[in-house]
Amino acid sequence: MATSMESLIGLVNRIQRACTVLGDYGGDNALPTLWEALPSVAVVGGQSSGKSSVLESIVGRDFLPRGSGIVTRRPLVLQLHKIDDGTEYAEFLHLPKRRFTVFAMVRKEIQDETDRITGKSKEISPVPIHLSIYSPNVVNLTMIDLPGLTKVAIEGQPQSIIEDIENMVRSYVEKPNSIILAISPANQDIATSDAIKLAKEVDPLGERTFGVLTKLDLMDKGTNAIEVLEGRSYRLQHPWVGIVNRSLADINKNVDMIVARRREREYFATSPDYGHLAHKMGSEDGFRIPC
């Protein structure tokens, strides 16, 4: 069964790449496209929700651009391929003959390729970037990282960008075969979560939504997120996953992802609030999405 599923994921990956080469990447087309018929995992969250940290934790590498404002300005189709051994590497669809083994260069290429379409402006584009990562430390999975939902246009952006981003994200998550990875920070009221609000609109029964609660360690002292994680505040058909993000200081110090994962495991294992949920929390144990 596992081999059959891996073969299916590989087929979907190849079809998605072919669609992009042929100019089919969904979006606002009047008619349904092959791209839109393919299954996908859409990663959705507001700005500063911890979305980038979640993706990097799943991959186990630092490779995404960071900064203030809208950092993700094009959809990033991230295809993970598990290999038995050997050196981890990455490849871009637009650079088919180049293999990246230094992941800081992957980050730079994402930035450069984004600017190639959007210019140095703060505009967004629906044209996806395809990135494949080959590693013994990942599972076979395809995820689509989408621009962060926002409520305010910053200087240099048209006011319409708020609606433009929501429409782009909605075009991915409203597909009935799209799994929604809804990222929300624990140090904000879940009722105000942009990701959950949108997921509820397109998936009112929560059948294809996976809730991810980030920044658990940044909650006010004496508070916790048990009501959310146990599904009492907002119920989904699938269990919520709690995450402890790397701090900005850790990121600036280039703290290894393996070290960060170990600290995260220790946090949940020793937490008086979350210890009983430790086996299904965190970047490693939490993201075993059933297909």
Compute the separation of the termini in Å: 11 Å
**What name does the CATH topology of the largest domain carry?**
Rossmann fold
CATH class of the largest domain: Alpha Beta
Indicate the CATH architecture of the largest domain. Answer: 3-Layer(aba) Sandwich
What is the SS-derived class?
Answer: alpha/beta
Proportion of residues in helical segments: 25-40%
Number of helix segments? 10
Question: Which key phrases capture this entry?
Answer:
nine-stranded mixed β-sheet, 2 domains, Rossmann fold, disordered N terminus, 291 residues, alpha/beta, globular
Describe the protein's architecture and organization.
With 291 residues, this protein is an alpha/beta fold. It has two domains: 38 residues; 242 residues, 3-Layer(aba) Sandwich (Rossmann fold), CATH 3.40.50.300. The chain has a nine-stranded mixed sheet with strand order 4-3-5-2-6-1-7-8-9, sandwiched between helices. The termini are close together. Belongs to the TRAFAC class dynamin-like GTPase superfamily. Dynamin/Fzo/YdjA family. Keywords: GTP-binding, Nucleotide-binding. This is Dynamin-type G domain-containing protein. It comes from Papaver somniferum.
